[in-house]
Specification:
Blueprint: H1 2-22, E1 26-27, H2 33-36, H3 44-57, H4 74-80, E2 84-85, H5 115-120, H6 128-138, H7 143-156, E3 162-180, E4 183-186, E5 189-192, E6 196-214, H8 218-221, H9 224-263, H10 269-290, H11 293-310
Parallel strand pairs: 1-2
Antiparallel strand pairs: 3-6, 4-5
Helix pairs in contact: 6-9, 7-9, 9-10
């Protein structure tokens, strides 16, 4: 009975200590990225901006200086003022002493899972490659389509720049006059004549056809259409890279929070809820870039896992 009462007393003291720690302001001059994320409205990215500002400009001299950090506005600063500090509080007196608590009541440390075990817990979720492909497809970035555009622009250069057809019609009214003088000599006798006159009349009716083609062969290699397609392709390549970078960052921010929830199960309910909401926010952002693919894939994964568990 004495041991039981001692154990209960130990648990009550631990609970009180944890509650006191939850209400302790976060020291923005020493807090880690994870500790900063316990503040409302502070995610992994914004927490890193605070740390970067601190590393560049030195420790914060006032709470208002936090407003100089990018993406922290007046409303966010006002909401955080009661939850942050510039220095650590006075050391808390150790209310738990091993000599006051039976040794058998001391909590046993739970061994942490290995890296492979942690990552294996996400095997049923969509891979980063699946998410990237879905984001590219949703953004309608098709490399094959741009190749077709370039080919069509080149083929256009093979068409004649101009076509000219000429039809000629030649008509002439000709008259020919022929006169023949005859002189005959026979047996010493010379005879003149008779003369012969001939009139001829003719009409010419000729047709002439011409078909001419003209090409600008430079358009096959260097035309305005090809330049326009090349410019548009360059823009789409940059846009494609931007989409991939955005969805990749969101994907691994979400995964980092999932890992933290596995490795730190002892955190307060406040932190757990905050992390879960952050995961939901990141999931929604990924859905926005993939047209809902991510949540649909997660739902299918849960169904697969449930069916496997039943079997």
């Amino acid at each position: 009975m004495k041991k039981l009462l001692s154990s209960i007393a130990y648990l009550l003291v631990v609970a009180a200590a944890c509650q006191a720690l939850d209400s302790t302001p976060v020291n923005i001059n020493t807090a880690t990225n994870m500790e900063l994320q316990t503040l409302p409205g502070i995610g992994p990215g914004l927490a890193q901006l605070i740390i970067d500002y601190r590393n560049t400009n030195g420790p914060f001299q006032s709470l208002d200086e936090l407003g100089n950090v990018p993406k922290i506005g007046d409303k966010t600063l006002e909401r955080l003022k009661d939850l942050i500090s510039l220095s650590d509080p006075d050391p808390v007196v150790d209310v738990i002493s091993k000599q006051d608590v039976p040794e058998e009541s001391q909590p046993t440390a739970t061994p942490l899972p290995s890296v492979d075990e942690i990552l294996a817990s996400f095997d049923l979720e969509p891979s980063i490659r699946d998410v990237q492909i879905a984001a590219i497809r949703f953004a309608e970035i098709d490399g094959e389509r741009f190749a077709q555009w370039r080919q069509k622009a080149k083929e256009k250069g093979l068409w004649p720049d101009s076509v000219q057809f000429t039809l000629g019609h030649d008509t002439d009214d000709d008259r020919d006059y022929t006169r023949t003088n005859t002189i005959s000599i026979s047996g010493g006798t010379t005879t003149v004549g008779p003369d012969k006159e001939t009139w001829k009349r003719g009409t010419d009716d000729d047709f002439d056809y011409q078909l001419r083609f003209r090409w600008k062969l430079q358009d096959y290699c260097f035309s305005n259409d090809i330049l326009r397609v090349s410019s548009e392709t360059e823009k789409q390549v940059k846009f494609r890279q931007s989409v991939i970078e955005d969805v990749t960052e969101l994907y691994y921010d979400r995964r980092a929070l999932q890992v933290e929830m596995i490795l730190q199960p002892e955190v307060s309910i406040t932190v757990k809820v905050k992390r879960e909401l952050q995961i939901q926010e990141l999931t929604a952002a990924i859905d926005g870039l993939t047209g809902g693919f991510f949540s649909e894939a997660l739902a299918r994964s849960r169904e697969t896992a449930a069916m496997a568990a039943v079997e």
